[in-house]
Design goal:
With 85 residues, the chain is mostly helical. Helices cover 84% and strands 0% of the residues. Helix 2 packs antiparallel against helix 3. The chain starts with a helix and ends in a 6-residue tail after the last helix.
Length: 85
């Protein structure tokens, strides 16, 4: 039986429509959950980056390695577009 003949039957046409709607709903739900998880993860990274930047601003590092680490934390905070405290 061909796809055209299957969809020609009224019940099969409705079944295909229902499958399409359910699939689109699941995709939309998956995208929503994914975006929310991504936002929460970014917020946690922002908190961590801001915390480390604050520590390095309060007690500036004296070694080149420490200064490099402090600059990297600032760069990460800027790349994540974290809000300034």
């Amino acid at each position: 039986m061909t796809l055209r003949k299957m969809l020609a039957h009224p019940l099969n046409g409705y079944s295909a429509l229902i499958v399409l709607l359910v699939t689109l709903s699941l995709v939309a739900a998956g995208l929503t959950v994914g975006f929310r998880m991504n936002r929460n993860t970014e917020r946690k990274f922002c908190d961590m980056a801001q915390s480390n930047v604050t520590v390095y601003e309060e007690t500036p590092p004296t070694t080149k390695t420490g200064q490099s680490v402090a600059e990297n934390w600032k760069a990460l905070r800027d790349r994540l577009h974290c809000p300034a405290d």
